[in-house]
Request: fold
Amino acid sequence: MKMRRSIVLRARTPARPLRVLGDGYSDDLQLRKKWYSTRRWKKIRAAHLASSPWCVRCAREGIRTAARVVDHVQGHIDASWRERFWSGPFMSLCTNCHNAKTGRETQARRRAAGGGVR
Ligand SMILES: [Zn+2]
Reply:
């Protein structure tokens, strides 16, 4: 039997081939960008910030900082992030705390993917 050399499968849109190797993160990122720009998400975000207006991480240090970001507590590493996107759990974070958390998640994802830099 002849082995197929190509590991690239065609996605629904032929212009963007779906990569089989890797963790699919790039495709997830596109979807997430799309979802974050929806009216549905903006409503969820506004409602969460209204009920929880202070950064929860700063609050642990006894600091009161206005939250700017509604963060997904469990992040987006796990493939099931799609199921939690609309339902949460969420937490309010300031920009600094959110960036710090996202940075740690990115490092964890790279380690999980075998240390490759993408
Ligand atoms: Zn903070």
Remarks:
- Confidence is low (pLDDT under 50) at residues 17-21.
- DSSP finds five helices and four strands in the chain.
- The two ends are 34 Å apart (CA to CA).
- The helical segments are 25-36, 39-51, 56-60, 81-85, 95-112.
